[in-house]
């Protein structure tokens, strides 16, 4: 079962039959939008608009914990995050797709863990995560491979087959926003090994892993990053590129739903083994 967190409007996928919408308050507050659940063939698929349906949640105020929690509680084991990014790597051009392999977090003040020891929320319900939260123990999750290798592999195969321009093995630098970066910040991110920059890739990836979910990140290069572009950046440019790529993104999602086997054969389900102190 795959859930897609991305722009609104993605859910008019060809062959996607909407069955219901789910919206409830989680121990971590309200999600940014109702979860739209339906089927592609016999596969259940969900969509969640990260910024809300009216795009009223800016990157630093997205209720990331509530968003991942509702998908976890609904039983979705795989998450695909779709993102617009600026390119830092000079080989990455506007319109290219990017499969992320690692991240560097430059955000601050975001609630980026469920495991707060004695300060945790103690949710009701059965499950490894719920038990661990109720144990009040400290939990340290391994992040040496943050993005699910099974999802990454499937994305690369799909992009290759479709003949879309893409890059894999990318490092995503997540900035706090909501402003775009300075030229000096981009020079720094470049020196540190970042390929792309965005404002929403973290903490989604971290929260998914803490819940033992598989998480993949598919980006579209919307613009060259500040200083690499020789002009001021605008939201208009980003939105225009995402509109232009909307059909391609839907095709990729459709293929991903069909391609991923029911069984997870990655290490993600074991994320909490040995993590508890
Ligand atoms: N910086 C940060 N976030 C972004 C960018 C950028 O250049 N483009 C799209 N999202």
Quick description:
This protein is α/β, with parallel strands linked by helices and 277 residues long. The protein has helices at 64-73, 128-134, 149-162, 183-191, 204-210, 235-259, and strands spanning 2-6, 16-22, 35-40, 43-49, 78-87, 97-106, 166-175, 196-198, 214-224.
Descriptive notes:
It is a single chain. With 277 residues, this protein is of the alpha/beta class. The chain has one domain (2-270): Nucleoside phosphorylase domain (Rossmann fold). Helix content is 26%, strand content 25%. It contains 6 helices and 9 strands. It has helices spanning 64-73, 128-134, 149-162, 183-191, 204-210, 235-259; strands at residues 2-6, 16-22, 35-40, 43-49, 78-87, 97-106, 166-175, 196-198, 214-224. The chain has a 5-stranded mixed beta barrel. Helix 3 (149-162) packs across helix 6. The mean pLDDT is 95. Residues 84-86, 175, 180-181, 197-199, 222-223, 225, 233, 238 line the site of hypoxanthine.
């Amino acid at each position: 079962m795959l859930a897609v967190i991305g722009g609104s409007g993605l859910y008019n996928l060809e062959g996607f039959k909407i069955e219901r919408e789910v919206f409830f308050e989680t121990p971590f507050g309200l999600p940014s939008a109702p979860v739209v659940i339906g089927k592609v063939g016999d596969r259940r698929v969900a969509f969640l608009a990260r910024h809300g349906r009216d795009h009223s949640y800016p990157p630093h105020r997205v209720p990331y914990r509530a968003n991942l929690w509702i998908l976890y509680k609904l039983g979705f084991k795989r998450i695909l995050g779709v993102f617009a990014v600026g390119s830092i790597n000079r080989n990455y051009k506007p319109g290219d797709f990017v499969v992320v392999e690692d991240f560097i977090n430059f955000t601050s003040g975001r609630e980026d863990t469920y495991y707060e020891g004695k300060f945790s929320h103690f949710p009701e319900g059965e499950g490894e995560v719920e038990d661990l939260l109720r144990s009040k123990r400290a939990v340290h999750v391994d992040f040496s491979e943050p993005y699910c290798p099974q999802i990454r592999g499937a994305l690369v195969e799909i992009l290759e087959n479709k003949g879309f321009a893409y890059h894999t093995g990318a490092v995503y630098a997540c900035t706090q926003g909501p402003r775009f970066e300075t030229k000096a910040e981009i020079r720094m991110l470049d020196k540190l090994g970042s390929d792309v920059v965005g404002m929403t890739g973290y903490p989604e990836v971290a929260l998914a892993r803490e819940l033992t979910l598989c998480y993949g990140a598919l980006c579209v290069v919307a613009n060259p990053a500040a200083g690499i572009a020789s002009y001021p950046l605008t939201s208009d440019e980003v939105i225009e590129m995402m509109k232009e790529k909307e059909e391609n993104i839907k095709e990729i999602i459709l293929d991903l739903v069909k391609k991923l086997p029911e069984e997870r054969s990655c290490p993600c389900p074991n994320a909490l083994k040995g993590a508890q102190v």
